[in-house]
Amino acid sequence: MTGKYLFVIGLMLFFAACDDENNTNNVNNVNNVNNVNNANCGDGIIDTGEVCDGTNLAGFSCTDLALNFSGGELACSNDCLDFDTSNCLYEGFCGNGIVDGYDVCDGSNLQGQDCHTIDPLYDSGILSCSEDCLEFDTSQCLSEPECGNGIIEGIEACDGINLGDNTCSSLNLGFIEGPLTCTSNCNWDVSQCVSCGNGTLEGMEVCDGTNLDGNDCSTIGAGFAGGTLGCNPDCDSFDSSGCYMAVCGDGIIEGDELCDGTNLGGLDCATTGLNFIEGELSCDNCLWDTSQCTAPICGDGIVEGQEVCDGTNLDGNDCASVGMVSGILACTNNCLNWNTSGCEAYQTILSTLDPAGDNTSSISNCDIKDILYYSESGNFYFRIEFYDSCDISVADVEHALQITDDNTTISRFLRFDLINGLLGVYHYDGTTWTDYTTSLPGFSIYPESGMTTHIDYTIPINQIPILDTTTGTLYSTGLILDNASSYDLAPNASWAVFNW
Description:
Among the domains are: 88 residues, no CATH class; 47 residues, no CATH class; 148 residues, no CATH class. The protein is mainly β and 500 residues long. Helices cover 6% and strands 29% of the residues.
């Protein structure tokens, strides 16, 4: 016992010695069995030799004993000779690496705990002990973030519109401005941040240093004729202080000037592109004066100026030369455009026959680019276009078109074939094939062999045997371009409708 506790014992012994001078030599008292065994312990009175008695603790508590107790309940031992400190709370020494007293941890001594054992929500990270040893420090523990909930968690840099008060410039990545955004996986999207001064156009920059994006004084739309264009320090605008304006009247065509004085740039009425055919071009305030130019007369039957035609004068053109197939080409009333309402044009049906887009062939270079058709003068015209030149002469190769008048079944159709250079028209009723080749003399396929970029079918509508052509509508059930074991477009992939 040390400190205050020893002082208490000494004080009691002192008073005991002074109690009776005869006691010192009283042999009977020293050897008094009753006194030695503290016969009075338990009466609540602190007698000679007793430190305490029952609940009588002489006014002492756990904190009075100078044994580093911070609180608790002090009691008296059963023999009254000592205090019972078993219920006192020991403050411990934080920082000695030993978990004692109130300590839940001490320094690196974490009692075997980690982030996950402290809280299952943490997946990883570094658990540490607080400075007062009274709790764990989980500030460096990490949980699996839920990207998209608007809360920045774990290793997330941002989450949705939650940027954590960051900006392009605060990231210390060399950006000076621009809208900072967050990617779908909660990382920074700096694609619109601007690093003015690096010579690279980024975000909303219109220029950067000497990088003017191909512009000069004459191209920025301010009427400058020339000079030296620069970029402003903030990269958001051009520096036009070195540019100069054109001077109208100096005979030099500059900037937005179309002409200057007698300098017409080598042009005349017919070459201005303004649909004049002759006359005298002049210059007024550096703009063309066309008051003496003569425009063509639409309707005189003469193709002049910007006219593409005039009346019945089509200048040698027809439907085919203007991108159509056949028919009657006409001229519009203003003589500037074609009237193609009387022309026939191919329509594509590839996406209908092959909605999956898997129109590939085992024949080299014969993958189909498009399938087109139009009708005119009682005929159907089909065209199969290839990406490359296809050799349709390959042995055992068949290309065929299947047409029906009933889009509810594939057991009633005609098949127009070219097999090894032999043309054939066959009808299938669901059981039997019947040859109708001689019944359709107008049927043709071109070319029938060799290398080609397309195949053209001609089928006379009104002479098609078996099928009902009076309704004005027929259907295609598919096209075959390959050998019997590999179809380019499977029959009945979808129905293509042909009207005439």
